[in-house]
Design goal:
Blueprint (H helix, E strand, L loop, with lengths): L1 E6 L2 H8 L2 H8 L4 E6 L12 E2 L9 E2 L1 H10 L8 E11 L2 H7 L4 E5 L8 H7 L2 E4 L9 H12 L8 H4 L20 E2 L2 E2 L9 H19 L1 H4 L5 E5 L5 H11 L6 E4 L3 H5 L2 E2 L5 E7 L16 E2 L3 E8 L8 H11 L2 E8 L17 H24 L22 E3 L9 H5 L22 H5 L5 E3 L2 H10 L7 E2 L1
Parallel strand pairs: 1-2, 1-6, 5-6, 5-7, 10-11, 10-13, 12-14, 13-15, 15-16
Antiparallel strand pairs: 3-4, 8-9, 16-19, 17-18
The chain binds flavin mononucleotide.
The site of flavin mononucleotide has 25 residues, from helix 10.
Length: about 475
């Protein structure tokens, strides 16, 4: 990522950014820093770039032309990079904004001095007005450094593994838990006993508890914004599961998962409060949701709870699935604030959706996660807005076609894994026969069987899919 800074004091920026972690990132080529001295574009021998304000009053104003020329001199990679003007009149900078700016290839920062900059050049070049807090600085340089530091942390490779795996204060609107190092006892104060147990689950629980406690005490305003995220998914062969995990990682550090592939969990009612976020994910079967004993997600109930829906599909199309999911969940008290249709491997073809989600898809997940965070922030102020998605909310009824299948009794060792893990309990414990009324042809039993005793005959579908839907599709989101 390239940072360009237009300033009267380049050394102030360089000295700060070239130090510590951002300095290392510059050396490693993860980020670059280019400063432009606005004074180099003055049109007088004294290098003056300010003048008296029209209409009178105290202070000086930076002139439009040198700022404009400095901006024009930036060797840009992108056509119109975002140009951020640091000003107390801007939107207050936060972690979501840092994450959003980090998605850009390059950023231009404009640092003002004196009373400000001639409004006309701001109108011409600035895309974002940003403040780092409700106080006034002598110039925009320190604010630019703060932003460069916070944005850089989201640029891949800037933090090493150890640094990036640390608990992110702010990521979930929570403050960090307290830290301790040797000695175990210092001036009569002991390290909390749980940290010495070596029990990582207990330690994680304690740390999260401390985070909640601290945030409540020190920043009750943040605590009110903390929003637990639950991902509820149905995924017999785990393609949807992988995609939803990848997305949720960008939404929270503490995800809860609800595996609705397990019939037992589909039967348990779960109520969500307005303070939570649900991510509901399912694979596309024939352009719709898989048909189960009860409609998928019918055990979940919201209370004006925002939700994000994901229809994962094998590169043919998602057709009506998102619209169907949206209706089911909105009828149950959720507000659908975002929808995404990622491509995952097709269970009937090793060519369709091969290697998806890939690196390019992950960038789209990141963008979508930032969009969701922004929609949540806006929704908290103005109310959540339901998104429009394509497709029919009540899809046409289809006649169910079950794939011909075969059990090789010679290979079968009777381990019963297929019986126990069939998401619709379609396999008889006694005979191991599949009940075609219940079977959804999801292939879970065939993939789980270590002895490869179960086969489904799908070569005709495979041939048709590979002929007509071979071209990789792009993720769509709404
Ligand atoms: C019965 C059935 C129907 C499917 N229908 C479609 C479809 O209409 N469009 C599509 O792109 N993929 C379709 N797929 C592929 C799935 O969406 C997906 O690739 C995979 O099977 C399931 O996800 P999972 O790994 O989470 O179980 C279908 C898969 C099955 C088993």
């Amino acid at each position: 990522m390239d940072f360009h800074v237009l300033t009267l004091f380049p050394e102030m920026i360089e000295n700060t950014v070239q130090t510590s972690i951002t300095g290392r990132a510059i050396k490693n080529g993860r980020i670059s820093l280019h400063t432009v001295n606005i004074r180099d574009f003055a049109d007088n021998k004294h290098s003056r770039v300010d003048d008296y304000p029209y209409g009178g009053g105290a202070g000086m104003v930076m002139q439009a032309e040198p700022v404009y020329q400095a901006y024009q001199s930036v060797k840009r990679k992108t056509l119109k990079p975002r140009c951020i003007y640091l000003t107390p009149q801007g939107k207050v900078f936060n972690q979501t904004m840092a994450e959003e700016f980090a998605l850009e290839e390059e950023l231009v920062f404009l640092c003002g001095h004196y009373e400000g900059i001639d409004e006309r050049v701001l109108e011409e070049i600035v895309t974002d007005y940003v403040s780092i807090g409700d106080y006034v600085l002598t110039g925009g340089e320190l604010a630019a450094c703060v932003m460069i530091d916070a944005v850089s942390r989201f640029v891949p490779g800037v933090l090493n593994n150890e640094e990036s795996s640390q608990f992110e204060s702010m990521q979930d609107n929570l403050l960090e838990y307290p830290h301790y190092t040797r000695p175990e006892s210092w001036r009569g104060k002991n390290v909390p006993a749980v940290l010495l147990t070596g029990n990582h689950t207990k330690i994680e629980e304690w740390r999260l508890g401390e985070s909640y406690k601290r945030t409540k005490e020190r920043r009750p305003d943040l605590k009110a914004k903390n929003r637990p995220v639950t991902a509820a998914y149905f995924s017999p062969t785990e393609g949807t599961k992988k995609a939803v995990e990848l997305l949720v990682e960008h939404l929270t550090q503490n995800p809860q998962y609800l595996d609705l592939t397990r019939r037992k969990l589909r039967r348990e009612k779960k109520i969500f409060s307005a303070q939570e976020l649900l991510v509901a994910a399912a694979p596309v079967y024939g352009g719709q949701l898989p048909v189960l004993e009860n409609e998928l997600f019918s055990n979940l109930k919201g209370n004006h709870t925002p939700c994000v829906i994901m229809a994962a599909y094998g590169n043919r199309h998602f057709d009506d699935t998102l619209a169907q999911m949206k209706k089911i969940l909105e009828d149950r008290g959720f507000v659908c604030i975002g929808a995404i249709a990622p491509i995952i491997p097709h269970v009937y073809s090793d060519q369709l959706g091969k290697g998806r989600p890939n690196e390019k898809d992950e960038v789209i997940f990141k963008k979508f996660a930032v969009l969701i965070k922004k929609r949540i922030e806006e929704g908290e102020k103005q109310g959540f807005i339901s998104v429009q998605v394509p497709g029919k909310a009540i899809p046409d009824k289809k006649t169910k076609k079950v794939l011909p299948q075969f059990l090789d009794k010679e290979k079968c060792i009777g381990c019963q894994v297929c019986v126990q893990r069939c998401p619709v309990y379609a396999i008889s414990k006694e005979t191991l026969e599949i009940d075609e009324e219940k079977c959804i042809s999801c292939m879970r039993c065939a993939l789980l069987c270590k002895k490869k005793a179960r086969t489904f005959h799908y070569s005709k579908i495979q041939e048709h899919l590979e002929k007509d839907f071979f071209v990789p599709r792009e993720i769509e989101f709404f």
